[in-house]
Specification:
Number of helices: 16
Helix content: 40-55%
Structural class: alpha/beta
Shape: globular
């Protein structure tokens, strides 16, 4: 794999100019060939510029000729990148979702206490059904497929069938613990040129803590071996990291970033702990205003200061969810989730369902979900309504998540999703 470079300051500004110029030429060519209307042309350019203005706090990841400006935006200048950009070319209906998280199996050798699939019990959905849904989603404009398990490499045939169904209109990122991964399997997957990374979970700063947290003595060694295999196979390495407030005060965050740098990671998704799955009970430490300020200060330092340029780009969920940024993007506003059983969920952190792709008409349940989420809101629903979901879960007695559609409707039928997110409100007006 070509060396990874991180862009900040002037280098990033020059790359911004290059990206915007290429996008201008791309959509000008589409105008001249009649693929977009004259009355939409300048609006499309304004919308794109507005979106890119939200990338100003990000560190860019450059691998050869490819540039990653945001975790959920495919590498520029791939075909998938322009699929994502095409979101803003829609004017007469709700703009399409660009990202989906798809679980190919619930099979897993680990027992992470915070797992949002902790109580998702049931048989994996028929792979042919899932493949058909994936192909439909590409046709609907999804540009970024995040494929996960359980552990997807434990069911390699299923993983491969899903990845093979995704053509170069979309980018693929696979979540893995490294368990079940082999160089041969990576080589087969790498034939899909749109596989742009493998994301490993690293939530602690030592092998002992990680093995304890994930409930398996092989957790650390599986990750280390998997990382080495990805580097050998020229596949970018990324990380998921979920930390409670104390970890930003006792040096844990810094120690984990040191490890991720040593492991050759190019990007870290810093996940805000969510009251979902194993933590649906809500008995976890919440981030207050002081905690949030500490996280922002540290993330800004790692992403923007020259002293930290060699560290991975930190994509911080806590900052992305703020009202002045993107707010809640669930329900097909920008992203949604299909679990291993085939349940269609607004988000992996919202443990309720709009139906199942195996038993319901996908177009219908997808439309119903996006209709319910038609106007993006500032309220972080996973935080606001977790207690109600937990109550329904206990009342139901099945000890199975997500909630069935009829119970789910009792949650969202009367909810208040807060003020419309300013970003999407302005984007639709431009």
């Amino acid at each position: 794999m070509e060396p990874v470079k991180f862009l900040i300051g002037k280098q990033k500004s020059l790359e911004d100019i290059r990206i915007k110029l290429r996008a201008f030429l791309h959509y000008t060519a589409r105008l001249l060939t009649g693929k977009i209307k004259v009355r939409h042309y300048f609006r499309i350019l304004k919308r794109l510029l507005y979106f890119f203005s939200k990338m100003k706090e990000n560190k860019y990841v450059k691998i050869g000729r490819l540039t990653k400006v945001n975790l959920y935006v495919p590498f520029f200048p791939t075909k998938a990148f322009y699929t994502a950009c095409d979101k803003v070319t829609v004017f007469d209906e709700k703009m399409p979702a660009v990202s989906v998280l798809v679980s190919v199996t619930s099979a897993c050798r680990f027992n992470c206490e915070h797992c949002y699939q902790k109580y998702d019990k049931g048989k994996d959905v028929d792979i042919e059904v899932l493949v058909k849904v994936v192909r439909k989603l590409q046709d609907k404009g999804v540009a970024f497929f995040n494929i996960e398990g359980g552990e997807p490499f434990l069911v390699f045939d299923r993983l491969l069938q899903v990845c093979n169904a995704i053509d170069d209109r979309s980018e693929i990122l696979i979540n893995s613990t490294g368990f079940g991964m082999t160089p041969e399997r990576l080589k087969i997957l790498r034939k899909n040129k749109n596989l742009m990374g493998v994301m490993f979970s690293l939530h602690t700063d030592s092998p002992e803590k990680m093995n304890a947290f994930m409930g398996n003595d092989e957790a650390w060694s599986s990750m280390v071996k998997g990382i080495a295999m990805c580097h050998a196979g020229n596949i970018p390495v990324m990380f998921n990291t979920c930390l409670l407030p104390e970890s930003f005060k006792d040096g844990t965050f810094e120690r984990i970033l040191d490890l991720q740098k040593q492991f050759g990671g190019c990007l870290v998704q810093l996940i805000k702990p969510k009251t979902a799955g194993g933590w649906l009970h809500g008995q976890i430490e919440k981030f207050n205003a002081e905690d949030t300020a500490i996280v922002k200060e540290k993330v800004t330092r790692y992403n923007q200061e020259k002293s930290h340029i060699g560290f991975p780009f930190v994509y911080c969920m806590l900052m992305e969810e703020e009202p002045e940024m993107f707010g809640c993007t669930a329900g097909g506003t920008d992203r949604f989730y299909i679990n291993a059983k085939g349940d269609l969920q607004p988000c992996e952190f919202l443990n309720f369902s709009f139906g199942n792709v195996a038993t319901d008409d996908f177009d219908t349940i997808y439309y119903n979900m996006r209709t319910e989420f038609h106007t993006p809101g500032q309220c972080l629903l996973c935080d606001q309504f977790a207690s109600e979901i937990y109550e329904k879960y206990l009342e139901n007695g099945s000890l199975n998540l997500p909630l069935k559609p009829e119970l789910s409707e009792q949650i969202y039928a009367g909810w208040d999703r807060g003020e419309p997110t300013r970003f999407y409100e302005k984007l639709s007006q431009l």
